[in-house]
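agent: user wants the full assembly modeled, not chains individually. Plan: 1) parse entity lines 2) check alphabet per entity 3) run joint structure prediction 4) return tokens. Steps 1-2 passed, two entities, 232 residues total. Proceeding.
--- entities ---
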Amino acid sequence: MLHTVNKSSFERNSLQTCLNTIDDSSVILFIEDGVINAANNTKSSMIADLATQGRVFALQGDVEARGISSKLADNIKLVDYAGFVDLVVKHGTAVSWV
Amino acid sequence: MATKKFMYLNRRSSFGTVYAIESLEVVLIAAAFEQDVSLAFMDDGVYQIVEGQSSDGIGMKNFSKTFHALGDYDINKLYVSKESLEERGLTESDLMPLVYEDEDDDWAEKPSIKIVTNDELTAIMSEQDICLSF
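--- prediction returned ---
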């Protein structure tokens, strides 16, 4: 499954709830304010293991809009909109954590 | 018209909601009425003034550049929460270099941004007539 998260963990618990229910083959894509979760900050430990496994993505346009391109946590994979579509196709059912 | 002290509390990042751009609009209106305006950036609001925002990829207006104009409207008190920056792995050097020209000091260019602790912010807020939260 593909899980998209569009809220900052400093603001909402969407990512935490996503992490509580995610299975071993699913991936996470951060979009909109969700990309704040991809920055290197005090919340980064939440996704460190998943990122190491190559299962954490962030939408490049949203990262650049927020000026955090140079501040991403380790092992975050950037995708463009075409990459977003590829993730949807590859992982089937998408869950949107809003 | 009597001058009042207005403080605008900015707690959201730039693009996920309309709070940030709406706040900036209202700030500029207050400035037009020559009120004493100060801004506070806390929680994810600190991302509003991060340097190097580029919104071309999401098709939204990059209004962060407007913050550079605030100095010309005599809005030069921008308080940024130290705790909120630290929590997000940010420092003052990650923020836009916002400045104003001090007419009482031969128009010397001075920084508008001041990093403050929550305790300092508490004191600044207590001096205000009106606090508006965005």
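agent: reporting back. The first helix of chain B runs from residue 19 to 32. The interface with chain A takes residues 12-17, 43-44, 47, 50-58, 60, 62, 64, 86-90, 94 of chain B (CB under 8 Å).
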